Every structure is written in C-alpha cells, then in structure tokens.
C-alpha cells in the first residue's frame, strides 16, 4: 500500500484526485503502477487502477492478470471493479472506503457478484486512515482555492 500511496501523492502533485495503484505478481513483485490522470490525459478511463492494470498487462504480454493482486488507495468504482473481474485478478486490496462510488462492498459489490465467472478475493481497509487523509487534504485545498 505504501507504493500505491506514493503514486497517489504523484497524482496530488499533478492536480489529479490522489488515487494510486500497483499490480503485484504472485511473489509480490511490482508489474505495473498507476495514478489518476484523467485531467492530463483527457481520458475518462484514466483511473489509477486501469493505468496500473494496463501497465501490468503490457509487462506480462497478456490481458490475463491471473494470480496478481491490485493494491489501490481508494475502493474501486464500478468501471475499475469490472476491469478487475475481466482481468482475472486474484485479489483486490484497497485502503479508503468510497461510500459515494465504491463498487467493492460499499455502494455495490461487483467483484463478489455470484453471477460472474470470476470473483477476486477482497481485502479492505488497509492503511485506510492514511489513504483517506490524502483525499481529504486534496478536496479541502480545492474548496479553499
């Protein structure tokens, strides 16, 4: 999660919502990293998770991220939760809960829907306070500025 937080801080410094993600292989080695870059890239899919999964897939040479773990500072939205299922990730680990758009247990639970053919393991709340504090600081500064 510390690596994902570094990515989130990079997003913060770039004026993006501070969400960071990493994809790890089965031995814990980093395959891909990402942070939000929707503003810079003008890409609505520029979420940290998507960026990290794309990098991991490129690193492996396949879209199947079987056995891999996505670590992200904020609970994934429906798009990112769906991409996690489609990528066949083994697990999704996240920090802060997103009660407004979370799709891994909060508002929806896309990744554990029994109707889907793949359901990653979920580990929630890892370093949640630190992950949430960065988001709170970002939005507080936006309101002031």
UniProtKB/TrEMBL annotation:
Annotated positions binding Zn(2+): 47, 77, 80
Top enzyme class: hydrolase
Coiled-coil ranges (or none): none
Gene Ontology terms describing biological process: tRNA wobble adenosine to inosine editing
Active site: 49
Keywords: Hydrolase, Metal-binding, tRNA processing, Zinc
Catalytic reaction(s) noted: adenosine(34) in tRNA + H2O + H(+) = inosine(34) in tRNA + NH4(+)
Record-listed E.C. numbers: 3.5.4.33
Reported cofactor(s): Zn(2+)
Pfam entry (one): dCMP_cyt_deam_1
Cofactor binding summary note: Binds 1 zinc ion per subunit.
InterPro entries: CMP_dCMP_dom, Cytidine_deaminase-like, tRNA_aden_deaminase
A GO MF label: tRNA-specific adenosine-34 deaminase activity
Domain CMP/dCMP-type deaminase positions: 1-107
Family in the record: Belongs to the cytidine and deoxycytidylate deaminase family.
Function field: Catalyzes the deamination of adenosine to inosine at the wobble position 34 of tRNA(Arg2).
UniProt subunit comment: Homodimer.
Protein name: tRNA-specific adenosine deaminase
Annotated organism of origin: Actinomadura spongiicola
Gene field: tadA
């Amino acid at each position: 999660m510390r690596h994902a937080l570094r990515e989130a801080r990079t997003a913060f410094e770039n004026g993006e919502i501070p969400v960071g993600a990493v994809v790890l292989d089965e031995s814990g080695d980093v395959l891909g990293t990402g942070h939000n870059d929707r503003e810079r890239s003008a890409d609505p899919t520029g979420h940290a998770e998507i960026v990290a999964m794309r990098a991991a897939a490129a690193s492996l040479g396949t879209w199947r991220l079987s056995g891999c773990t996505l670590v992200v500072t904020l609970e994934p939205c429906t798009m990112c939760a769906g991409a996690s299922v489609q990528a066949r990730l083994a697990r999704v680990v996240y920090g802060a809960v997103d009660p407004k758009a979370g799709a891994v247990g909060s508002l929806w639970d896309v990744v554990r829907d029994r109707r889907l053919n793949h359901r990653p393991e979920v580990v929630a709340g890892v370093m949640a306070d630190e992950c949430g504090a960065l988001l709170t600081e970002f939005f507080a500064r936006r309101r002031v500025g």
